[in-house]
Specification:
single chain, 147 residues, Alpha-D-Glucose-1,6-Bisphosphate, Chain A, domain 4, 3 helices
């Protein structure tokens, strides 16, 4: 299979600190991360370089397991990790997220050695999650600009 280098940039209506938390807090990730009808759970998330994570996406038929390790963490600017799942044919890919302030906040996602284009759907779900005030119980939500 050929390698696809994919870079997606998407502006979000939240500051980088809040978006970083949405990517690194199991309770928040379980609310937006999965396209599956039964959502996702994050049974393991060791937020440190070298730490491991596991994300289970639940469908009616089965759970889709995604695992990896954190390579670089520079809160709230960079999150880089490996990604292994059925979607990558159980081969390791590297995902690098850059959170940059631009107006209300910007998330730039660069997924290298990508074997599928699922990153775009993640960004759409994250945008939906970050713009739904009732979803989050964070104090920072009052600082989010209205769209």
């Amino acid at each position: 299979m050929s390698t696809l280098n994919l870079t997606i940039t998407k502006e979000l209506s939240a500051p980088p600190e809040v978006v970083f938390e949405a990517w690194t807090t199991p309770e928040q990730m379980s609310q937006w991360f999965s396209p599956m009808p039964k959502g996702a759970s994050v049974p393991k998330l060791e937020l440190r370089e070298g730490g491991e994570y596991r994300i289970d996406m639940h469908s009616d038929e089965r759970d889709y397991v995604h695992v990896g390790k954190f390579l670089k963490i520079d809160k709230p600017h960079v999150l880089e990790f490996t990604w292994i799942s059925d979607g990558t044919e159980q081969k390791e890919t590297i995902v690098r997220l850059q959170f940059e302030a631009k107006g209300a906040g910007t998330l730039r996602l660069a997924e290298r050695d990508c074997r599928n284009q699922s990153a775009k759907s993640f960004l759409t779900r994250l945008q939906d999650f970050s713009s739904t005030e009732t979803t989050l119980s964070r104090k920072e939500i009052s600082k989010w600009p209205s769209k």
